[in-house]
């Protein structure tokens, strides 16, 4: 039977600093201290190390956690191929979940608009994962994948999931996620995000019904807080606002459990006779965490023009080149527009970065909008021009430049990457969500205002 040492609503703690060392135990004395012999862990537990980085990376980047559990994760039968439950979008008998028939990505310079993705209510968290876009190769630990995840039922009892491909940053758009991880439990709601690092096993249940989320799977490195530079010592996402779970264990070493693994995009399954959630205590720097986006401290311009959208970065995954990211998670929080004598919407622009944007919610009906809608997304790839639609340009060119509160009625985010992003056949065709007239409707109506001097 499950044994816990906390109330469910208090199943996480704030960090003193993002990425800091953390320790937690659900039974007093389960964590070893220096004067105790490591030969025999307390309570007959096994010691297991979970490494998120190479052992020899610099101390500041090192992410390792020691687990004290009832049985080690190595105690299981052989892996076998896993096929998730059939999906309404599964038209050819092959799974369209993840990468098995999607390893060939289509790279297109076209700007793409996806109408809201439908919630597949017969799916669970694993079977409801659909790869939309990506770049790189998880076997080489380079690049990323972008998913839309919809589900209407809990993951099966006695089942867990993990990804060997990368860290998973999840952005809920609809519904609540109860996430049981090896290191404890987290409840995640819309307007919050959660990061589950590579290899950590978890199970998702749906306490309020169907859910829809966007997710970025990072094959390369880990997310961290961006440097603040001239902003100073605080601002944007502050370290104190991140939360991690406290230890909670499940004592079940008599039932058959299934653990599903994503490995190079394919799904595998193992069987074992004990719960994967049997960690009684842990300490280290490698753990899942969540963040409430309402705590984001926005920085903005107060004179003219725009600061680059990097000022809205919540988390970043740096590349080996200084200042260049494999992925940034950007959140457009409520903020004041107070620039003087300037055009306030984003300028028309072409970026070396690719931009995958999604809308979390809007306080007014956008169901007939020609643009981005809640649960929808856009992809503006490397060097493809984009910016405000023609009507927005006309209005913004004439409006009175008084202070105006932005972002109070619409919550949106962006996955930004230095990589050119390919799109899956599922996203382009099977989903039925690509708006074919997006470019023509949004930018072709722009009028010529040029007046040659006489």
UniProtKB/TrEMBL annotation:
* Alphabetized GO MF terms: homogentisate 1,2-dioxygenase activity; metal ion binding
Residues annotated to bind Fe cation: 349, 355, 386
- Pathway info: Amino-acid degradation; L-phenylalanine degradation; acetoacetate and fumarate from L-phenylalanine: step 4/6
InterPro entries (alphabetical): HgmA_C (IPR046451), HgmA_N (IPR046452), Homogentis_dOase (IPR005708), RmlC-like_jellyroll (IPR014710), RmlC_Cupin_sf (IPR011051)
Task: Cite the record's Basic and acidic residues compositional bias ranges.
Answer: 388-401
Known cofactor(s): Fe cation
Family per similarity comment: Belongs to the homogentisate dioxygenase family.
- Please list where the region (Disordered) is annotated: 382-401
The keyword Lipoprotein appears for this protein: no
Q: Pinpoint the Homogentisate 1,2-dioxygenase C-terminal domain residues.
A: 294-450
Keyword terms of this UniProt record: Dioxygenase, Iron, Metal-binding, Oxidoreductase, Phenylalanine catabolism, Tyrosine catabolism
> What range does the record give for the signal peptide?
none
Name the record gives this protein: homogentisate 1,2-dioxygenase
Q: Where is the active site?
A: 306 (proton acceptor)
Binding-site list for homogentisate: 364, 386
The family database entries (NCBIfam families) matched by this protein are listed as: hmgA (TIGR01015)
Q: Name one GO cellular component term.
A: cytoplasm
* Domain Homogentisate 1,2-dioxygenase N-terminal residues, every copy: 13-293
Which EC class, in a word?
A: oxidoreductase
Entry EC no(s): 1.13.11.5
Q: What are the recorded Gene Ontology BP terms?
A: L-phenylalanine catabolic process; L-tyrosine catabolic process
User: Which Gene3D superfamilies does the record associate with it?
Assistant: Jelly Rolls
């Amino acid at each position: 039977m499950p044994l816990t040492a906390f109330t469910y609503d208090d199943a996480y703690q704030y960090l003193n600093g993002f990425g800091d060392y953390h320790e937690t135990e659900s039974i007093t004395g389960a964590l070893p201290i220096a004067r105790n012999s490591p030969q025999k862990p307390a309570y007959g537990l096994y010691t297991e190390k979970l490494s998120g980085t190479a052992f020899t990376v610099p101390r500041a980047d090192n992410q390792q956690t020691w687990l004290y559990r009832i049985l080690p994760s190595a105690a299981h039968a052989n892996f076998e191929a896993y096929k998730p439950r059939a999906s309404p979008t599964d038209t050819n008998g092959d799974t369209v979940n993840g990468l098995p028939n999607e390893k060939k990505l289509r790279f297109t310079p076209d700007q793409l608009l996806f109408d809201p993705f439908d919630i597949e209510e017969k799916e669970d968290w694993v079977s409801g994962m659909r790869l939309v876009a990506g770049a790189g190769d998880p076997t080489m630990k380079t690049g990323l994948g972008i998913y839309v995840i919809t589900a209407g039922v809990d993951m099966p009892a006695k089942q867990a999931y993990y990804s060997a491909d990368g860290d998973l940053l999840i952005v809920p758009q609809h519904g609540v996620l109860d996430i049981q991880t090896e290191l404890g439990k987290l409840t995640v709601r819309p307007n919050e995000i959660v990061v589950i690092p590579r290899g950590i096993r978890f199970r998702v249940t749906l306490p309020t019904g169907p859910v829809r989320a966007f997710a970025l799977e990072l094959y390369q490195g880990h997310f961290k807080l961006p440097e603040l530079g001239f902003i100073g010592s605080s601002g944007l996402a502050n370290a104190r606002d991140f939360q991690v779970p406290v230890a909670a264990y499940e004592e079940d070493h008599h039932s058959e459990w299934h653990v599903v693994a994503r490995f190079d995009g394919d799904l595998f399954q193992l069987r074992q006779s004990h719960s994967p959630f049997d960690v009684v205590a842990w300490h280290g720097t490698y753990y899942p965490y969540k963040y409430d986006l309402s705590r984001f401290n926005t920085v903005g311009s107060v004179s003219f023009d725009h600061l680059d959208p990097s000022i809205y970065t919540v988390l970043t995954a740096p590349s080996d080149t200084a200042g260049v990211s494999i992925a940034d998670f950007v959140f457009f929080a409520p903020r004041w527009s107070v620039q003087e004598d300037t055009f306030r919407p984003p300028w028309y622009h072409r970026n070396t970065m690719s931009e995958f944007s999604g809308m979390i919610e809007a306080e007014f009906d956008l169901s007939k909008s020609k643009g981005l809608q809640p649960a929808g997304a856009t992809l503006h790839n490397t060097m493809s021009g984009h910016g405000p639609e023609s009507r927005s340009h006309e209005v913004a060119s004439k409006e009175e430049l008084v202070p105006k509160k932005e972002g109070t009625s619409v919550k949106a985010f962006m996955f930004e990457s230095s990589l050119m992003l390919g799109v899956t056949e599922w996203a382009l065709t099977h989903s039925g969500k690509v708006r074919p007239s997006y470019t023509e409707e949004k930018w072709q109506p722009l009028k010529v205002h040029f007046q040659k001097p006489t």
